[in-house]
Amino acid sequence: MAKEKKRKVKKGGFTEIAFRFSRSKTAMIGFVLLVLIVLVAVFADLIVPYDKVLEQNSSNLMATPSKDHWFGTDPLGRDLFARVVHGSRVSIAVGLLTTIVAMVVGGLFGIIAAYYGGRVDMWIMRIVDIFTCIPGILLSITIVATLGPNFINLVLAMVVTSIPGTIRFIRGVVMGVTENDYVEAAKSYGANDMRIMLKYIMPNAMGTIIVDTTMTVAGCILSASGLSYLGLGIQPPSPEWGAMLSDTKQYLRTSPHLLIFPGLAIILTAFSINLVGDGLRDALDPKLRD
User: Fold this and answer.
1) Residue 27's CB: how many other CB atoms inside 10 A?
2) Is cis: bond before 237, omega within 30 of 0?
3) Which pLDDT score, from 0 to 100, does residue 9 have?
4) Strand partners, 73
């Protein structure tokens, strides 16, 4: 039966990739978990009103989980479940926005460096080397501390630190693609550079880039949480998982639930994205195809 099912799957394209991805149990677990987290972020207002995020109750401070407050309450009496649910919007938004901007900007310079080579490649990569000499977390802290902690500056700092690595990665991927015969054939019949890059190079490099992009989202979410933990990310009263850990770290022994739930949210989100990334890598890897 398994062999008959395999024959029905069309080789190549989205159908084969989806089939290979669905065969991985870990990838499907990660996919289901990630879909649930995204749905929570999208429908946060329907799950619990935003008013609950800011509503304080001085008579119910640091309450343990109960039927009225599923995750308990924080030191200000705010519902922890509401803050974790609405905090998912901030963390996922930061991760996605940072990754998209970094991939667009870094991808552009990476393709240009790999395609043209020579002096163009040298100048782009020397600038990249300058930025990579500075630890990413230190550069992010410097940018946010200079511009001020808020959502826009947090994303900007993470984009700046992500672009150099993105350029280096995409340059390496594209250099492997540009050596193929179909690229040389396109050049020989007079196709312009933009057409070659968009029609012949990008589609053949996209699989590897998608996998790296998926992994980058998880890294950006962790980095954003780390900066917020240091007080350089999203500022109160807006809910953010890293900031929630920072605000309650002194209660680790007396009220551990204040750190457990935001911490689990960060771990499960990063874990699910990494599982999906691993599944995509296996599904898109030509060496693993039958």
Assistant:
1) 21
2) yes
3) 46
4) 79
What distance lies between CA 116 and its chain's CA centroid? Answer: 30
What's the token pair of residue 110? 């990476």
- Chain centroid to Cα 166, Å, comes to 13
pLDDT at 33: 92
198 CB neighbour count, 10 Å cutoff? 11
What is the arithmetic mean of pLDDT over 262-281?
88
Q: Which of 100, 109, 117 is nearest to 158 (CA)?
A: 100
Specify the pLDDT at position 123: 93
CA distances from 82 to 52, 65, 77, 99, 262 (A): 6, 13, 12, 26, 11
Residue 248, Cβ neighbours under 10 Å: how many? 19
pTM assigned to the model: 0.80
Q: How far is CA 142 from the centre of its chain?
A: 22
Is pLDDT of 7 > 80? no
Q: Are 218 and 273 in contact (CB under 8 A)?
A: yes
| Secondary structure class of 73 (helix, strand, coil) | strand
Residue 39 has pLDDT above 90, yes or no: yes
Domains of the chain and CATH, by start: 42-52+70-285 (1.10.3720.10)
CA dist., res. 4 & res. 1, Å (int): 5
What is the Cα–Cα distance from 155 to 169, expressed in whole angstroms? 21
Residue with more model confidence, 163 or 62: 163
Torsion angle in degrees (nearest 10) through CA of 32, 163, 159, 129: 130
Q: What tokens were used for 111?
A: 């393709």
